[in-house]
Amino acid sequence: MSNHFKAADIPQISATFRFQWEEAQGCHVLLYPEGMVKLNPAAGEILKRCDGINSVDLIIKDLKSAYPDADLDSDVYHFLDTAYDNQWIRHKSA
Amino acid sequence: MTTNGSDTSLPKPLWLLAELTYKCPLQCPYCSNPMDIARYTDELSTEEWIRVFKEARALGAVQLGFSGGEALVRKDLEILIAEAHELGFYTNLLTSGVGMDEARIKAFKEAGLDHIQVSFQASSEELNNYIAGNNSFEHKLEMARLVKKYDYPMVLCFVLHRHNEDQVEQILEMSHALEADYVELATTQYYGWALHNREQLIPSQAQVEAAEAVAHRYQEKYKGKMRIFYVVPDYHEARPKACMNGWGAVFLTIAPDGTALPCHAASELPGLTFPNVRDHSIEWIWNDSNDFNKFRGFGWMKEPCRDCSEKEKDFGGCRCQAYLLTGDATNADPVCSKSPHHEQMVKLVNQANSESKRDTAPLVFRNMRNSKKLTAHKWSTTSKA
């Protein structure tokens, strides 16, 4: 499934990044010192739910209710690994 | 609106650099501020800066750098940070650390400051203090520790030149010990003060190659822990830097008196009108002013740039460098080996390689006294803005 996350893990945006909607870009972005990552719609929808409250299985459940036709379990786990490797997200600290 | 032949849609000023003041307790002889800093006494007010932030944000600006001079000199910095944060900017404080203390670091955090970049002049106290022109090294170390204590992402910035180029290993070990998240190994850019001091600052080819090798080794060593940005010194290269990612493409600099510039060195170029935020909106300055359209796109280019397959990669290099070294801002940046003026760059680096040419004159430090002395000719004409 994932190298970094299990269903019960709670991901959250790293302290060194800020996640927000940018109207002028028409997309969600991650901001960091003197830089910006523009996110595609799927990445934005996942990261929006990485709020330090919801576990991965709840995030997937919520995404499925918003996008009922998508088979997205493996996509979500895959993206969370990518986001982790880029240091965008971390496990919520206890 | 003209775009000088570019058919791409109009870019947005993603990066707003607010040069709040040119006052600075440091005297670095490679300072990126213009040499006539002493003339910028009429600084924008708190309210004027806030209007600039609002207008730039509405145009799509998202990164805001508080810079100078030394931004900490401005007593209203906490207010400006809070306003910028409220507007949704990612706020960066670019500072020497001189003028900061724990109370201010805490107040900035409460105001919503996202990131602090602390500049050092070297990894040794002696050289740091010599280049900075004051005894700031110990204080900077203390400030770097406090920046981490208050959970800011921290960038440490070192401008490299002949005198500290051999310290890269010590610089990176020191940065790691201070828990830096990012280290910027910047290179001296030869405009203004640095151009004046070029003979004393330019490193040899051997120094540059050794520094680059150390930087690459440490990028591997601290992978995932500390990101190291190594800026290649363009004088020693055969292709120019993609200066500012293109003219009027991403960067908007506002000088302390409200002058808007496509880059912080552009005030040296002839033929610009220097629109001021006191007279014009940011929208007009960015979209419609002569200055911001002058080298936008590719229509202004001459050969060898015009038909060059790499023009979309480096935009012909730097307009200021082309003007300062060839006398014509529409020429190719002479760093490029395709430029008919490239030979002079080779000569400059060869001179730097030759020990006998070294240290022929003392460094001229960046301060108001030297500014007045060196730009006296400008003072007799009409005042700026």
From TrEMBL, chain A:
Which keywords describe this protein according to UniProt? PQQ biosynthesis
Please give the biological process terms from Gene Ontology that the record holds. Answer: pyrroloquinoline quinone biosynthetic process
Pathway assigned to this chain's UniProt record: Cofactor biosynthesis; pyrroloquinoline quinone biosynthesis
Q: Keyword Nuclease, does the record have it?
A: no
- InterPro entries linked: PQQD, PqqD_bac, PqqD_sf
Molecular function via GO: quinone binding
Membrane-spanning residues where?
none
Question: What does the record list as coiled-coil region(s)?
Answer: none
Superkingdom of the source species: Bacteria
Q: How does it assemble?
A: Monomer. Interacts with PqqE.
The name this protein goes by in its record: Pyrroloquinoline quinone biosynthesis peptide chaperone PqqD
Q: Which organism is it from?
A: Candidatus Thiodiazotropha taylori
